[in-house]
Design brief:
- By secondary structure, the protein is of the alpha+beta class.
- The protein has a single domain, classed as 2-Layer Sandwich (Hypothetical Cytosolic Protein, Chain: A).
- It is 37% helix and 22% strand.
- It is built from 3 helices and 5 strands; from the N terminus they run βββββααα.
- The strands form 2 sheets. The protein has a 3-stranded antiparallel sheet. A two-stranded antiparallel sheet has the order 1-2.
- α1 runs antiparallel to α3.
- The chain starts with 8 loop residues before the first strand and ends with a helix.
- The mean pLDDT is 93.
- This is Cytosolic protein YlxR.
Length: 98
Amino acid sequence: MVKARKIPLRKSVVSGEIIDKRDLLRIVKNKEGQVFIDPSGKANGRGAYIKLDNEEAALAKKKQVFHRAFSMDVDSVFYDELIAYVDHKVKRRELGLE
């Protein structure tokens, strides 16, 4: 009998949903105070997750959720980069490339 593997779950900071980690995007704040997208999901630092969804990325910018998650001001340019990155990833998934 094959043992069932445990599926890692994480909570989206925007919607509050608990989702499979593979369907989320990790945002990291490192010790230097830099906030960036972590496509590998393994970078050192404090992580926060959002769902790979265009609406959720736009809502993250509107609510400025990473200000709260990281207890610091996050530049609006980062949110624009996040929206562009999520849009790109969503389109790749729709094409079946990921």
